[in-house]
């Protein structure tokens, strides 16, 4: 590999099967220089230079002042890229729209409001199973919306959005299933499920940001399953207290909904990773790394 002139450095991002290449020039290309250029070209994904780590063939982080030539032995050599915090759809949209006036405030508020309304609308898509003659727990699209938003938004918004939804419902907005509202919903059989929503959303968001579980189909499905387990665990526990029987809680509040929730998991699993196939570190026109200019 030439030390002088322009050549290309191949980088393999985490959760990607395709490398991206960066044209570079100069006799000494450092890890820090390449890391800054990756951020420059992919700000909406990397978010900050410090969030990116470059790894060698042994999987160990490369020091910033190290020269890349000592790690790139031939033209097939690659440098691995890992992010401490993975991007979410919310953070991606916020970065893309940051040129809008007051985008720092307006874009998050808009995403927040749309997400709350999405959950509220999903709650109205409800019905009772034929064998639930006592109309104990309705089947709704709420759980899908909660877990879906959490996966798209990250842990903070994954908690804040459902929590706002609950506060709005308590305040009188007809956001709960059947257009109900007020404190009465928290004294009934569904209270446990409602309480679980911010926790489940936060969990899904944490797995997205810190583990990148939304980038692949299998891990997205695992995220949805774990979120559902949280909802069932808290919801069925409360229901068991109200009914005075754990077996009745399982029969009325868990088992009948497993097939429907399985369908919701399949839908979310099919939707979430697909977007990243088009957005996650696709090859772009890269700016040449000029070492002298970066000094």
Describe this structure in words.
The protein has 295 residues and is of the alpha/beta class. It has 2 domains: 95 residues, Ubiquitin-like (UB roll) (Roll), CATH 3.10.20; 189 residues, Orthogonal Bundle (Arp2/3 complex 21 kDa subunit ARPC3). 53% of the residues lie in helices and 9% in strands. It is built from 11 helices and 5 strands. It has a 5-stranded mixed β-sheet with strand order 3-4-1-2-5. Helix 4 runs antiparallel to helix 5, helix 4 crosses helix 6 and helix 6 runs antiparallel to helix 7. The longest helix is centred in the C-terminal third of the chain and has 27 residues. The two termini are 24 Å apart. The C terminus is likely disordered.
How are the elements arranged and paired?
Elements: E1 6-13, E2 20-25, H1 31-41, H2 43-46, E3 52-55, E4 78-83, H3 89-96, H4 103-124, H5 142-153, H6 155-171, H7 191-211, H8 217-243, H9 246-253, H10 258-279, E5 289-290, H11 291-294
Parallel strand pairs: 1-4, 2-5
Antiparallel strand pairs: 1-2, 3-4
Helix pairs in contact: 4-5, 4-6, 5-6, 5-7, 5-8, 5-10, 6-7, 7-8, 8-9, 8-10
Shape descriptor reads elongated
H/E topology pattern: EEHHEEHHHHHHHHEH
Oligomer: single chain
- Helical content band: 40-55%
Helix segment tally: 11
| Rg | 24 Å
Backbone structural class: alpha/beta
Quickly name the level 1 CATH class of the largest domain: Mainly Alpha
C-alpha termini separation: 24 Å
The CATH topology label of the largest domain is Arp2/3 complex 21 kDa subunit ARPC3
Q: What's the pLDDT, averaged over the residues? A: 87
Regions with little confidence, pLDDT below 50 for 5+ residues = 290-295
Strand content: 5-15%
For the biggest sheet, the summary is: 5 strands, mixed
E-strand count: 5
Strand order of the largest sheet: 3-4-1-2-5
